[in-house]
Amino acid sequence: GTRKPVIAMLHFPGLPGRPWHDAAAGPGRLVEVVGRDLETLQRAGVDGVLFCNEADVPYQLAVGPEIPAAMAAAIGQLRPDVTVPFGVNVLWDAVASLALARATGASFIREVLTGVYESDLGMIEPRIGEIAGYRRMIGAEDVALFDNISPEFASAIGGRSIADRARGAEFMGMDAILISGPAAGVSFAMSDLQAAKEAVPDTDVVANTGVRADRIADIFRVADGAIVGTSLKVDGITWNAVDPARAGALMDAARAARSVVVG
Predict the structure, then answer these.
(1) At what angle do helices 162-171 and 190-199 cross, to 10 degrees?
(2) Strand locations in the chain, DSSP E?
C-alpha cells in the first residue's frame, strides 16, 4: 500500500545446526534479538520487514527442516507485534522460504528464483518451474515472489544481460525483480538498476543491497522500492543490532525522496 516502500531486514542470529548457533542460549535468544530489532524498525516507520537467516554463514543451497522450523517458531511468537507487511528469506532455499511463508502468513519471499549462477556456495540452479509447482501445491499462491537476478557472491552463467534476465523473470511471473551488489551491504551498479527498470517498466524493480540514507534519493528516482539491512545496524556492521538513529535517518531520507519522486 506504499509507493516506493522501504523493507527492512530482520536478521536472525545463527540457527540450530549452523556454525554460529548459540545452543546454550536456546530459542529464547532468537526471539529476543529479532524482537528487539523489530521494535526499533517499526518505531522508525519502515514500510515492511523481511525475516532472514543472515547469520547462517556459510550459506546452504538446501537447508534442513530445523532452519525454517526455528524461524517459524520465533516468527509465531513475534507475530502479534508485527504491524507491517512482512516477508521471509531462507538463504538460499526457495522451497524452504515458501514453506515458511505459508506457515507464518508472510506476504512475500526473497530468493534467487530464475537463471543459473556460479557462486561461492556452488552452482545456484533454482528451477523456477518446480518452485512454482510447489507454491501451488501448498496453497501459497498469494505469496509474492521477489526474484534476485544479480545475487550476492555469484555471477550469471552465460552472456545474458541484466535487461534480458529481468525480461525473463517477468515472463516467468515474478512479482518483483531485485538488483544486488557483490555482497551484503555492498552497493549495486546504478546502471544495472536502470537497465532492469527500462527492460520491465510494468514490473517492480527493487534495490536489494547497499541502500543508505545518502543514496536513497538517487535510488528512488529509478527503483520501485528498497530492501535495507546493513546500513541500519550499529556502526554499519551486518551482525550488530539495529541502530535507532540510523533507522530514523534512513526513513527521514526515504520520506523526503518519496515526496519529490512520487508527489
Answers:
(1) 40
(2) 6-11, 48-52, 86-89, 108-111, 117-119, 122-124, 144-148, 154-156, 176-179, 204-207, 225-228
Q: Using alpha carbons, list the distances in angstroms from residue 224 to 18, 202, 205, 261.
A: 34, 10, 5, 11
> For 214-262, what is the HEC assignment?
CCHHHHHCCCCEEEECHHHEHHHCCCCCECHHHHHHHHHHHHHHHHHHC
- pLDDT-above-90 percentage for the chain: 97
Do 151 and 179 form a contact (C-beta atoms < 8 A)?
no
Q: What SS3 class is residue 175?
A: coil
CA 62 to mean position of chain CA atoms: 17
Interatomic CA distance for residues 182 and 204, integer angstroms: 21
Which amino acid is residue 179, in one-letter code? Answer: I
Give the up-direction half-sphere exposure of residue 71: CA atoms within 13 A in the CB hemisphere. 35
200-239 residue pLDDT tens: 999 999 999 999 999 999 999 999 999 999 999 999 999 9
C-alpha to C-alpha distances, 106 to 34, 78, 98, 260, nearest whole angstrom: 16, 13, 9, 30
User: Which cell goes with 106?
Assistant: 508472510
Using CA atoms of 195, 199, 201, 202 in order, give the dihedral in degrees to the nearest 10: -140
Q: Which three cell numbers stand for residue 250?
A: 534512513
